[in-house]
Amino acid sequence: MSQQVQDPVRSRQALLDVRREVAKAVVGQDSTVTGLLIALLAQGHVLLEGVPGVAKTLMVRTLSAALSLDTKRVQFTPDLMPGDITGSLVYDQNTAAFSFREGPVFTNILLADEINRTPPKTQASLLEAMEERQISVDGITRPLPEPFIVAATQNPVEYEGTYPLPEAQLDRFLLKLTMDLPAREDEIEIVRRHSGGFDPRNLRAAGVTAVASADDLADARAAVAEVTVSPEVIGYIVDIVRATRSAPSFQLGVSPRGATALLNTSRAWAWLSGRDFVSPDDVKVLTLPCLRHRVGLRPEAQMDGVGADDVLQSILATVPVPR
User: Fold this and answer.
1) What is the pTM of this model?
2) pLDDT confidence of residue 33
3) Which residue ranges in the chain fall short of pLDDT 70?
4) 290 vs 254: CA distance, rounded Å
5) H/E segment holding residue 174
6) Which of 102, 123, 126, 242 could staple 106 via S-S, CB 3.0–4.6 A?
7) How far apart are CA 35 and CA 99, in angstroms?
8) Which pLDDT score is estimated for 264?
9) How far apart are the first and last CA of the chain?
10) In 196-320, which residue ranges form alpha helices assigned H by DSSP?
């Protein structure tokens, strides 16, 4: 039985107001903020890729503040252990017994900073949390707070000493969002704000307030679930995904999980745009962020300077669009 939506119009406006609040602290990253909202609506995780200094951490902190959600940040390093993420049993001398101490994963938005700098064993500790919204320690399963998403960052340069995420874990991320360096006008605004005393550690002073809540997000998710998708659009999604499996430049195509991810994110974007149905244009908008990390380029394509986005764009140009 679907959840009764209290007021979808109010919930949509509250989430749109979140974008305005984030803009008080973060300049020129509107598309990334929208991507994070889509991930929250579709109950998925996000991989953020960008060079240091483009406000990845500030964006997640500001988004959490605007939604009145809890957030924790973990700097992933080569010596980080799984228990540092999930929590561990700690001996209490007063009771002469072991008790569980929660790790930072017990939050609403977990910022996993530079996730590719920690060994695979620690990366894998996030898999159960990401897929099942729970963790298991000492044979006991503990549910995570609701909502819960992982926003993981990785640096597109400085690959020395890193541990690239395996395909199985990349596939657990709903979206991969790329954060480019700001345009000149945006960078001028960033510097102007700092010259005026902006402190990224003090969001309250920047005027950021909570304009939405977990209840608004729950109502919004219920409304997104009611967005209709025609058989023709479903067929369009499947055709795009199947085309990745036969593209000459790809050695790895998108699995059915990618097709359902494209469906769910298209629904969320359609609802945010004020519609109760998904159009082919919605699918096109989400194809790159939803599929770019689920494909594998052939070495010869990489040597020719071809990127995953280039191939996906060519697929969108060739797959027939339903009328």
Assistant:
1) 0.90
2) 93
3) 1-6, 158-161
4) 10
5) strand 173-178
6) 102
7) 38
8) 97
9) 32
10) 214-225, 231-246, 256-272, 280-291, 299-303, 308-318
111, 74 Cβ separation under 8 angstroms: yes
Name residue, tokens 């995953």: 308
Closest listed residue to residue 56, CA positions, set 84, 80, 24, 25 = 25
Residue 111: the pLDDT is 93
Contact 282, 269 (CB under 8 A): yes
The rounded distance, in Å, linking the Cα atoms of 114 and 161 is 12
Q: What is the DSSP letter of 159?
A: -
pLDDT at residue 158, as a whole number: 64
In 10 A of CB 30, how many CB atoms? Answer: 12
DSSP per-residue codes, 36-95: HHHHHHHT-EEEEE--TTSSHHHHHHHHHHHHT--EEEEE--TT--HHHHHEEEEEETTT
- The answer to whether 256 touches 242, Cβ cutoff 8 Å, is no
Rg value, the chain, Cα: 20
- Whole-angstrom Cα distance, residue 118 to residue 120? 7
> Which single residue is written with the structure tokens 């194809």?
287
Could you give the angle at the alpha carbon of 198 between the alpha carbons of 195 and 199, nearest 5°? 125
User: What secondary structure does DSSP assign to 88-157, as a single string?
Assistant: EEEEETTTTEEEEEE-TTSSSEEEEETGGGS-HHHHHHHHHHHHHSEEEETTEEEEPPSS-EEEEEE-SS
d(CA 323, CA 320) in angstroms, rounded, equals 9
User: DSSP code of 175?
Assistant: E
